[in-house]
Amino acid sequence: MTDSVFNLAVDENKIAVVTIDVPGEKMNTLRSSFADDLKALLEDAKSQNVKGMVFISGKSDNFIAGADVKMLDSVKKREDALAISELCHQAFFDMTKLPYTTVSAIHGAALGGGLEFALACDYRIGTDSDLTKIGLPEVQLGLLPGGGGTQRLTKIVGIQKALEWMLTGKQIRPKQAKKAGVLDDCVPHSVLLKVAKEFAAKKKPQAKEPKLDNISKLLESNPFGRNFIFKKAKENVLKKTGGHYPAPLAIIKAVRACVELDELKAYKTEAEAFATLVMSSESKALRGIFFATTEMKKEWRNDDAPAISKTAVLGGGLMGAGIAHVSAVKAKVPVRIKDVAEQGISNAMSYTYKILDKRLKRRIMSKADVQLTMNRITGTTDYSGFKHIDLVIEAVFEDLALKQGMVADVEQQCQANTIFASNTSSLPISQIAAQAARPENVIGLHYFSPVEKMPLVEIIPHEGTSQETIARVVNFARKQGKTPIVVKDMAGFYVNRILAPYLNEAANLMLAGEPIEKIDAALVEFGFPVGPLALLDEVGIDIGSKIAPILEKELGERFKGPDAFTRMIDSRRLGRKSGRGFYEYDKKGKKVDESVYELLGVTPAPRLNKSEIAKRCVSQMLNEAARCLDDGIIASPRDGDIGAIFGIGFPPFLGGPFSYMDKLGASKISSDMSTLANSDAIFTPCETLLAMAASGATFYKKEPAEDTPIDDNDAVAVQTAIETVIEKDTQSSDFVNDDVVEKATDIDDVKEDKTSK
Average pLDDT over the chain, rounded to whole? Predict the structure, then answer.
């Protein structure tokens, strides 16, 4: 079986050890040859009269990381997708019917199809390593588990926990998995094979009831309780997703089939749903995001570039605190925070401690781990301790002279190759570097707030930035858990440039009489995580008003913000941070502040429907995105899609602005915008869209997808994008600097907190 991913060895006790090792690949994945390979393996084992079988990985950090996404992406017909699911069902049923005991010895990721494989075994033994994570993350790609996962997991952990795990795609730690009954034991890696072989020598186990508390047992044991669970799960999904994602509803239906239908019909329900989802536009869009983030990891990569091993942050506000957090917690490097006041340093350190303390209380981290992490963060009110810093990240307010002064200070206080990165959201990096002695070390590093949640970072080199500086900063951003896009040095860069006209149009519609709540509802229904006026409140109306003149000066009158905002600022209506803006805020939440209409001289007079409102706002964003590509602000439509989704919550199920424009067609977009331009010239479609409409061109050219599994690292960006969209109350994209977003939680905590209950 040398050509197989399965390598069989039988010991003197007739216990077979099957090493799973996909040749030439870093990760084990389930591929199209899997069923045939498994069938051949079982025939070989039968001929050797084995009495037990252990499956163990030949890889150092994964058991089976998931299905081969390329295989799914290459499916052209629903019937072919259905065949994939049915083939997996049959292969796993064959495993369950073996006359001897089977054991999965899990070290590393057992995700998606990898976990489904393990669930088909009689026992599952996992290591207690941080590398070991189990889960069914298919929902992240708009799918459901198609290899029996919706059925087997439900029978092991119960309805509510199965729904929770599958609807969130969360990754489960070994001790949690053992407590839930998915793992039969959790052991050190050094004894994994030994313990697994001991289990393989046992008799096949009898089916067990899920480990449920009394309340869960009461709910799940009768039709009325189950109806309540499924009803609440559906309501929760629809509330969070707006009905834009079909996969969660299909998961609920498949789990319900598990407890209400006979086995054959239940598995058929799963397979049929899987086939439908594989062919859905939503899944195709999410798979596109997944492939894009995978491709981007190869770009600007330079393994020979010196690593960033020590960092510093200038400014202890919310942005500075967030940057320090991801540097210490994610990148695991020492961080020196400089602020003009001790209180600023204390606040920044407290920011990280509060997040870690939540994880400590939920036993995600130990006290020792919390202390070790906090020890990486130190503070100072001067430049002491900066001599050997590799990267200094500035996170202060938008003042060019201040930032230029900081460049000079860093060049004086640090080593010759220390990189100065500015978190500016609007000022051109060339201006910040204009007086630098070593401009090759100056670069933009634009985060989005809250830093520990938002997955995007814009990296902005100016013309004099060295290639090594770019590579070092890209590498470090990835260590921080970010998806970086390298953009051209021009006012607003990419994300804020496409966001500004979108927000301006929403404000103009409000000034024309459209109700605030109607405008926001229109864009939420379109798929954004939060409406544009609510977003302005989150950002801070004063912040938007400071950025707008910079964009208008550099890019033209189409970026001019409404003059009415001055009246809001004068009356201290700055948004959430001041307690009122377009909305009033209190401990109970928010509601529209009706008095803002009188302040701005507006009489609400609805005249447009929600789809018209959404079309007007989104058209402005699409038009500007096309201009950004034409101006070379972004290198490709792919970067533009990722930037919009991960930076401002453009609906992931639409694939991003460029994918969405390809879906609608340039002709349709140009025609719609030309119609709007008859009454307002600002809607005139840009020359690129007009030329594409005339030629029938598209932004994307179809290319073969890369051979890639659903693994725990690459899929996290997709999951974060979806969470950003459905976590409507925490999205606050950064038009954005130090003044916004009081609420912040670690991304792992966000995953843990989302449930379907």
Answer: 90
